[in-house]
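*** Residues and shapes ***
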Amino acid sequence: MNNTFSFKRFFNVLGNECRLNNKKALLFWGGIIIIFILFCSLFYSDNKMIPRYFFLLLSFSQMCILQGFYLQFYYNEFTSKNKTQSLLLLPASGSEVFWAKFLLGFVVYPVIFSLLIFFSLKLIGDYNDGILSQIDNMAKRNDQYTYYQVLPVDIFIKLIFLLVWLFSASAYLFGIMLFKKLAVFKSLILWFVVVVGLILVTRVVYVIFTGDWPNTAIPGFVIGGGSNKRNEVCLLYRMYPEALYCLGIFICLALVFISKVKYNEKTI
């Protein structure tokens, strides 16, 4: 077979993967919609607005956590007789198979999930507007109005959201290629240890540069606990913002391409 990338074979693989996993995918998205409805019902009460900030963070966290389970639909090879036969008999190269699965599990997933979050927030906003129409103008000037109704998300926050999701997705993909059994759970444990290690390194670097121990630290960002001006900023981010974003994207892309190599080894 010609190993040159062929879009015809690529789309054949896409169709094959959709056919094999359509029931699982539909059940998955049906469950997500039910969870979204339950989230809203938990926050619902008469004449009270639903907290959009909290709903956004909760939904985004769910999106990152469930990414690994969705990837398993497409990358968990040889799990059934039908899937094994389809994989072995389909005339396609390893690259075409990998990138077809990548498109469905890595690209389509966040698009659909983001649309669900967007429409949910829109519905919550309409609901909150209805509540606001029933209260007087003094209540509108309450701090809760800003908290519940306005979502000021600047470019910094958007980039953080993007990097967190990109890292979670690429980390899960790497874990699925690395581990044979319970890949998602083992990936969570592995990357939890890695992130904790990075937090400790970040704190040590902060102490070396400032002489103070920070109250809060995440990889690449440190917030100190004193009254000095140097402790009131995210030190490393203010020093090298572009470098930190580029490093994060580089790590994620490296994990994706390492996963591709591991996938080729796994399916030979």
